[in-house]
Batch of 2 targets.
Target 1
Amino acid sequence: MRAKPVSILEGDTFVVSDRRGDISISPEEAQGLFQGDTRFLSRWVLTVNGMLPNPLSTDDVNYFSSQFFLVPGTGTVYVDSPMSIVRQRAVGGGFHEDLKVTNHKSAPLDLDIRIEADADFADLFQVKDAQLQRAGKFYKRVDGNRLVLGYQREKFVRETWVTSSAPAEIDEKGFRYRVHLEPHGEWRTGFDVLAAVDGTEAMNRRPKYKDVHDTPTPNVGMSLQSWKASAPQLHTSWTDLEKIYERALVDLAALRFFSPYAPGEALPAAGLPWFMALFGRDSIITSFQALPFVPELASTTLRVLAMRQGTRRDDFRDEEPGKILHESRMGEMTAFEERPHSPYFGTADATPLFLVLMDEFEQWSGRHDLVTRFEAEARAALQWIDKYGDRDGDGYVEYERRNKETGLENQCWKDSWDAILFGDGTLASYPIATCEIQGYVYDAKRRCARLAREFWSDPDLADRLEKEADELKQKFNRDFWLPERQFFALALDGQKRKVDSLTSNIGHLLWSGIVDEDKAPACANHLIGPHLFSGWGVRTMADNEGGYNPIGYHVGTVWPFDTSLVALGLRNYGFKKEAAQIAVADLEAAKYFQYRLPEAFAGYSRAETDFPVEYPTACSPQAWSAGAPLLFLRTMLGLQPVGDRLLVDPAVPKQIEWIELLGIPGRWGRSDAFARGQIAV
Amino acid sequence: MPTAHEIFQLHQFQKYEPLLRGVTGTYLFEIEGVGYWFISVRDGAISLEEVHHDADCTICCDEPDFIDIIEGRRNLITAAMQGRVKVRGDITLAQKFHGLVGAMIENTREEAA
């Protein structure tokens, strides 16, 4: 098994290297320095006297820095290495790396130290699909003490600038140092590697880290501390939960990025390494999960998504007026319209979820300025639901991609091509109306009715939205319900057939509130029953369905964010014990992932395995997985804004003796929650 | 195909653009080899001059690209990503301009339908 790569990140810049700190590309691993969906460094290899050093240990010092302790190979375990090599790297606007070589012997050493550098400027889509044929031209040059690696396609120019603090022989392949080390002597250099856009200095960001007293000094270090300090303080008898909470906050801090559309304010990127970009659905749900903890994410997410709302019909981008974007990318393939992500609008749920978050944000924060400022965008989103979302006028939002080549086939959260399956495992036909999207629409209309009445001075709109929501609920409970199986169909397909698989989506329906009270107990029983509940969380698809696969991306794995919304849904319908049960189960799984819940893990039953099994290509950290422990805490503590007060109504399992969450921010200022574990699960 | 002059002339006497309600800021359009147009927007009220002034947002490109963007054949965002269009200053204003063009094209399409 290959050693896990080392990843450090800040904003949309990240570095993936091997355990030596080297970067080299292979079909198996996507290593490199990435920024703006472009690989600015595809080779960065250190050799000493022509040999690759051996790694002793590697530390992820922080999410934005790492250090690598290395020694040259001696060929035998009986001979100690005469020297050690330390590489310290910090990422941000490129990266800074300090290299230190120490002679531990009483005799001098003469060394030939070399760093090889190269860049393929591949778009992240090309890296992911291992398609590296390029339309532009590469160039390299040495400008004084700077090595410039470049790529140009028409007026599209990307460059990597590398400088060394110690004098070096520089050629187009890298840097070379002929070093004489006195006994017990030391040699150092520092590299600045800068990702340069358009090849003009004025357009480029500066590296965020400098060589100060030989130690990289992160200029976001304080902001991480401030970030953590601004969040509520968690104390609990379950120390693992404290570690999970700390990890979640740090991961959310790591995944923050700063959009030019909201300078100085952060919103969450979706996940490392493939999704370090703005995603409508992911940013909205992460912000929702994090509202009682770090509410600023929601404010920025709403602002940026509102500013980039769709304004035209554009089949290539699946854009329509009022629609909220799915994904925004910056790489070459997007720039030249070989991919539609500038931005791409292929999502049918981000628009109602945007409205849900807008209302939830106001309820928690009391900040109605944002609700007022984006009234026009909210109305446009409501109009999209009725005019474009409901494609055939049947009262349900359905999707079918207009971009047949590079658009997404499934435009719900389960967006892999084979996610929407009948119980016998056959694919549903398009257009598809998934059940949870109807729930989101119901919720959005209910919530916007409140906003219209309280902030937009439009009681007529409020009345209309409430009427439409009521009608949708009634119709939905009739058309999607499977009386013989006692749960809601996953979807209606293109022939309006009920897609009859049992899936976690029914938990989203509870979260949305669209489920009739008399149908909720059956849904709850399924969600905690043996077919959906694995013992570690709720499977995306029940294990007795024809399409089930425990390592199928959306057809059997457990997604922590999914389980977190299911838990809140159960709780909202009064199933406190069931909500606590699945919350604790998922949190227990985090222990086996270094206290960090991954994007997804396999759906094998807990009876089969004492530990949750990894899903092979899961992103980690992943924003809405980092948000999941926060929503589990909210659910178990029963946190809910009621007017200007915070309601605390705990339902904590007995195995957690006590929890205190201090300084919960909101329209009340700061408030505390205390709970004792009293529920047997 | 219209020229940049003709496009700006068409909007010279327009005093209010409802699609820019809530938007306040200044634009400078720098059309390479053709001229400069300065547009001031105050909550939808607009004024346009053929003059070079510093602006909150400068959009610089050649004339064919500008016309293609205005008429919906080229996307401002990808043109900027390709380096065909240089956007300096407040990118949110550039985004508003992109949205305005989209909405105008959409209105024209709906009227035609």
Target 2
Amino acid sequence: MDIQPNSFEPLKNNTTDVMGMSMASISPSPWHRLKQNKLAMLGLFTIIIIVIIAIVGPWLSPISYSDQNLMQANRPPSSDHWFGTDNLGRDLFIRVLYGARISLAIGIVASLLNLTIGVIYGGIAGFFGGRTDRIMMNIIDILYGIPVLLYVILLMVVLKPGLTNIFIALGIAYWLGMARIVRGQILSLKEQEYVLAARTLGASNWRILFRHLLPNSMGPIIITMTLAIPEAIFAEAFLSFIGLGVAAPMASWGVLASEGVTSLRSYPFQLFFPALAISVTMLAFNFLGDGLRDALDPRVRR
Amino acid sequence: MKPLLNVIDLSVSFDTLNGVARAVDEVSFQIFPGEAVAIVGESGCGKSVTANSIMQLLPTPPAKYSSGQIIFEGTDLLKKSEQELEKVRGNAISMIFQDPMTSLNPVLTIGTQIAELLQLHQKLNKQQANTKAVELLQLVGIPLPERRINDYPHQFSGGMRQRAMIAIAIACNPRLLIADEPTTALDVTIQAQILELMKNLQTKFNTSIVFISHDLGAVAELCSRVIVMYAGKIIEVGTAMDIYHNPQHPYTWGLLKSIPRLDLSNKKRLESIGGQPPDLLNLPTGCSFHPRCTHAMQICSQYFPDTTFVSNDHSVSCWLQHPNAPKTVREAVI
Amino acid sequence: MIRYTLSRIFNSFIVLLAIITITFLLMHAIPGGPFTGEKNISAAVLKNIEERYRLNDPLWKQYTDYLLNLIRFDLGPSFKYAGRTVNDIIAESFPVSLQLGLVSIFIAVLLGIPAGAIAALRQNKWQDYATMFITTLGVSVPSFVIATILIYVFAIKFGLLPAAMWDGIEYMILPALALAAHPTAFIARLTRSSMLEVLAQDYIKTARAKGLSQTVILYRHALKNALIPVITYIGPMTAGILTGSFIIETIFAIPGLGRHFVTSIYNRDYTVILGVTVFYSTLVICLNLLVDLIYPFLDPRIKLDKRQGG
């Protein structure tokens, strides 16, 4: 220890305010936490690659997903046909690439529909509260008791198979979770002081809902959306399997996989590649969704 | 007299995402048989961690008992295996926690939660344990105990739950009772009742008590000695008289000034200590308190002060005690 | 308690009625009758059939008739299989689906709960990572893929187990495993997160402070509390297993209700679709009701009209 003559002089500029510096390092930003989650980043990376391949891939290919070549039917994977060919001699690699477009489109459009319906429904219930909320949430509780997929099937039977109808059926079937999440968020947020402040300044109900409440509920909404996309892809695969998917020669991953199942004994590769594509995509979305939940959910933070 | 509990140079650290936080830093103190000692400080000062370390209740990881000894009745608790510790917990040493709302298992009856302890440590059978549980509830002042014993925690009020927690804590006549902010979550009137109850039980059973609190006012009645902690270190230790009437550390002055008092004139504002408790991951150099200290000197930001003994049982760690330090007129607190 | 029970039962009835109505209207919203697509039927025969199935009655008459029949548990005749009723089909094939479903639920509970509990107890250790990885796979890979992989490995490659049909216990193993994969993974994840939440509670620390051993804490203080949320998954799980059985029974050629349902979708056998949907919905709603009614017994905090506070 080195005591100098000036050691006992008052400390200059001794600030009593140490708040700023101490708080910042305690809770890193959600993005920072997400970046540290390797599985989540792997998921995000995989999703980006799949999306790029789905958009760009088919353009670069000289042959189309519907080009048949019966001479080349049921060929195993080779340098000509990376994933082999199906029973009509169509190139499976190209079909899986196209399938990515359709499956991803279904996932994204259906989850956007869920988002729209869920946000409007949950937003109204949470925002107006009281009786409105009770009735609207009762309806949700009731609908929750119903096996949803059964009704998606029923809707598809009525609507006839096809891409648009799958959008509609999945969109109107899976919004319940989103509505609940949004409602819960709005309910807790609307008691916050900045909402009161906005109200005192004369902001209208809709303005408060869309400018103040919804943007602050983004975290849980994003998580729910991330997990809704694979659910929709899953549901579509299911529908395709029981013959209610998109119409031929168009093919989603679900259609390709269900075609592959029929020829499993002789040509297992015809199932393998579409199944791999579905599984990898689902895994990627689930890892990302779990990671987002850990990063954004303050309850998990310790 | 031989101390019942002798904590020597205890350090506890936490591994966090952003680095290692030293929550308790080379802390030493003794508890003698039959005495009640308070550990006070702001939240995050390490007092709760110290309390939980004695029975090693902190989850490891993230917590790590990095060094030191905790000698209880002659043996080092830190060297004991988990099985050996289980024989001490709830038996020779027991603990009361801050929030009685969450400290009791919501799906088990109060009776079960008391009886399981007696069955475990005193090898009573179910019937005996139940009878003893009723007696204990009676002792801690719960009316109609033979009926309330079958209630679930949510059927008890906050004060009654804390009484039930105390019943659990004293069930096996422990030599040491650790109370981690037992009154913080309660209403003021209930606080007084619980303190009264603890005081009665202490005189009746001659139990030693470690009483953790952030409120110097609350400990005044119960405890004979007070330990003041700041940023994981003990900065002042003394008898209750020393601490209340002759405090030496500027931080203790601040704590005393922040007690609401009825005898002061209305015009005087209640003072608080400026600033925030420091970030344990990013402690100030020298004395951790210096950024908030109105008496800080050059040296305070460079070195941590040695412990100075003001009297036999009153010690303090502050550069103001150094012979070269200017003679600060201690701020009048009383 | 009684008021709550009655209002829950009443609610379930309303839901059921709503479901029947919606399903009924949906099926009748299909343009044209069920036989319009069939070209080899003459106009006279078509008329005859429509008479027999009362398709020319006004919609409300058909609806009330259907409801009245439902009260007598009569789901009506099948459109495609002459002389067979929906009741016949259900009575014949549901027991098969029930067996398969129960075995799957058994597997899911038996594997899922311990896996989740172990993962929670070993949080951030390899056991946790392994469980989380496998369960994420389990919820990510469609059941028909799992089924076909199982068939490929155990039936085709090694010939250990039969790949199809329903003729004894060994025929049950592969389909039950495939059907259980998804709920097992889900239960494990649910148990893990709920267990982690419970383990972080203050009362677990109290239990440790009492000197209770890890095992006692786990069984008496943690597991029961952690499993309460898992109970609420029974309803959705049953629904999932029912719909899952459509695919699994089709792949394994099991003569259960699920396969009949899929066949009836291919055949556009509307009364069967309607009947099975109503039957399955009723089943799931009853299970949900049951869970709601036993829930207060598991969690004393929600005893509804008993004395509160003290």
